[in-house]
Every structure is written in C-alpha cells, then in structure tokens.
Specification:
The chain has 261 residues and is α/β, with parallel strands linked by helices. 32% of the residues lie in helices and 23% in strands. Strand 6, helix 5 and strand 7 form a beta-alpha-beta unit.
Amino acid sequence: MTAVPASSDHHHGIAPHQCGRCCTHIDNISVTLDRHPVIEDVSLHLHCGELTTVVGPNGAGKSTLLRALLGEVPHTGCIHFHPVFGPEREDSPAIGYVPQSLDFDRFSPFSVCDLFAASISRFPVPLGCRGGVRNTALAALENVEAGELLDRRLGKLSGGELQRVLLALSLTPLPNLLLLDEPVSGIDLSGRELFYRTVSELRRRFDLSILMVSHDLAGIAAVSDRIVFLDRRVICSGPPGEVLANLEFRHAFGFDLEEQK
C-alpha cells in the first residue's frame, strides 16, 4: 500500500483535533532494488505531535525509506493510519514532503508565489498568482516565519530561506504525516537553528507526526522526541539519550574510537 500525496483529497484532518492520540503505523516496509535488499522489515509507530529522526551511515536506506512511504519505489509492507475518531483506516495518511534540495533554474524569474500557484492552482502560472492562491501562500509562509519571501525570486533565496519555503509548501494542505529528507543539509548554523525551531513549533501547533532523516547528530538530539538508528533494518529506537548511548550506534559513528584517542 503506497502513500497518499500531500495534494490528495484524502486528508483525514488530525491537526484540528490537537488530540495527541492519532498515529501512523509503518509495518514491515522492505525495498529490494536490482535484487539487492536496501531496507528490510522496517516498522515504526509515529504519534501525532512527535518528531522522530532517522539516522544511520551512508547507504543505510534512510532516504529510500522516505521514497517508499511516498510510493516512489516498489516495496512490501503497508501503512495504517489510526485517526482520532473511528476504527483504524486501511489506507495511508496524507503526506507532506520536504526534499533535501530543489533543482531549478536560478536565473528564472519564477517567484515563491509562482511556486505555490504551480502546486495548488488549476490556472497556468503565466496568468499570475491569483488572490486566493496568494492569500493561501502568504498564510503558509507566515507559519514558518517567511511571509516576507512571498514575491522573492526563487533564485535569490538562501539555502535556509528555500527550505522554509518548501516546508510551507509541504503544509499546504495540512498533512497527517510530514517527511523531511535531510532538510538542513547545506544550511549555516543560524539557518539550522531557525529551521529546527520552526519545525518544533509546527509540531506542537498542528499536532503533526514528523519523520525526519538527518546527519546532523548535534542538532537532532535537542529537537527529536525519538531517534531511530537505521542500517538497512532498525538497529535501535528510543529517546535521544538512549539511542546516543547505544554501543552499536556509537561504534557506527566512531564515537568509541574518538574516546580512545
């Protein structure tokens, strides 16, 4: 069973309830590419209002897991969404996604408002950013402290500004599950701190389930409710302090070697 994209009409609307009881079960997701297993039997329980970060060495399957949840690669296993009201649903949550980077022509006159228009409007972008789209885009950008970027050209944005724009777009419409694929890669320290602060505030305000892939071990401990150490399969999972102290985790990232020097 594949994930429903963020633009789907199947939005179950956990955020307005502010309940803390909705959750998404990822059950036994496995991906095999060119006959080689990339991830095996990955199961996660994601609560609304919580931020779970997936870490692991290069080639561990972290981004592949997100691609599987988005339905971009064939996989086995399934996703079950548990809403606040009614029985478990045999379908996937509405998903928002922030990629690691966005490829585009930096010399294009395409603006942030144009990006929203291309994503959420039925009218061709050359016809302009109509009032309803403009208001929606501005409200979304203000949620991530980026309202002033509405008319800025995409090519003029810094790395941190672009990631906040993509974050705002991923929340339009509001998803049940937000996926972040190394969202602070290439962003300076102040930009990383602002991004993390914004994501933490969004998690609380909209009761979002957030699954983030990251290599930023120094930054994730302070913002994550749970860390998952993935190396093709889940090696360990738990509160940040517990996972950071795990011997397999410390060996994989060379912490034990540093302490021996």
